[in-house]
Amino acid sequence: MAGANRPIRVVHVVRSTFGRHFSGQTRWLYTLLSGWQDPDVTLGLWGTELKPVNMNSGNLKYQLPEGSRLWTGGRILGRLGLLWSAVRRLTSFVFRRNEFDIAHFHTLSWFELLSPVVLHRLGKKAVYTTSLYESDNPGEIAKRRGALGLDLYRRFDGVIALSPGLTDDCREHGITNVLCLPNFLVMSDLEAGRNESLRAAMRARYRIPPDDRVLLFAGSATRRKGLDTLVESYIRVAQQYPRTWLLLVGANDKTAAPRFDVSYVAEQRRKLHEARISDRVIWTGLVADERELVGYYSAADIFVFLTRMEGLGNVLVEAAAAGLPTVATNLPGITDAVVTEGETGFLVPADDVGEATRAVGRLIADPSLHAKMSAAARDRARLFGFESYCHRLKDFYLSVMGIKTEEPKESEL
């Protein structure tokens, strides 16, 4: 492939803090690297000081080291630390240029933006995955870093966009080799749908009656994820439907990040307490165990995701696979890539507590509508398979190396 007798070598380049705390993106990348089996392309992971970690282990799932940290000593760096780290990493590309063909980046700072310039001089390729609208998409980079930032962005040899909205933004800003490739479903145990035994066990753990309705949110308890809108909506739902619970799965304190806004979470707890419904709200905290996560999805009836900013939302795919009708913020080209309005759930305007409440209420009050949307959601989740993802990713890498393949197919989304 890249040479007469060897495969294309791709290294996924992440920051020193990647894997410091278990997250959806961490779990997704580990699953990709540990499940990759194509002999024509090898995948590796480079992090702190570009140390390689070999996770090409066939069907075996990578297990996080004790303490949920991938890199020993990984820490949040100040500006000088970031500058020094960038210099060292750029230098490492030079000294280790014989170990890879493509560098695949997942975060965007000046280091990543400058990397294609260095890599091209070494005869290497650089690609990037844009994953969060209004954060690392070309349009936002043009706003934040000006013409220079956008010019450097265009020097990547290819860009993967997680949703149609991000794809359109790339094309509008002159990115020609862009592939719309949403993340695959990470938790394969959800492919069979809701696990009834786990549902019963999880509900028993929290003493949730079998016939009560459970709303589920999965993600960090932050303003970006719209937790405040969800809390306000749930207060209204609980007044109308008393036998309804709220399950909040995800980080909600400083174990998630040193700069986590605990006052924001405290304010949401206060609102629930004053409404006298905090006894029906379950805060799980950060959950790294995959089977436990499957249990929470199985215990729920409706997924509520009132996020303000996303690139796609891996949890939307997971909820669909679990057969959960979803009420989500309408982010055109992003959330509607997973949630089909009126078929697999409802899309509501951002910050609209009333519309979110009405949508949840419809699903609670109409069991036949809930069942219909549940079946449609499971069908939708089948578009996010691991094997098809790997096939399309391989073709993307081949195109970056100038190797002709079949004409790339547009995303089915």
Which features does this protein show?
Rossmann fold; seven-stranded mixed beta sheet; six-stranded parallel beta sheet; 40% helix; globular
> What is the β-strand count?
13
**How much is the radius of gyration in Å?**
22 Å
Q: Which strand order do you get reading across the main beta sheet? A: 3-2-1-4-5-6-7
Largest sheet: 7 strands, mixed
Q: What is the number of helical segments per DSSP (H or I, 4+ residues)? A: 13
Q: Helix-strand pattern, N to C?
A: EHEEHEHEHEHEHEHEHEHEHEEHHH
Derived structural class: alpha/beta
Low-confidence stretches: 54-60, 64-74
Broad shape = globular
Helix content: 25-40%
Please give the domain count.
2
- Distance from N terminus to C terminus (CA atoms, Å) equals 30 Å
Looking at the overall shape, the CATH architecture of the largest domain is: 3-Layer(aba) Sandwich
CATH topology of the largest domain: Rossmann fold
Strand content: 5-15%
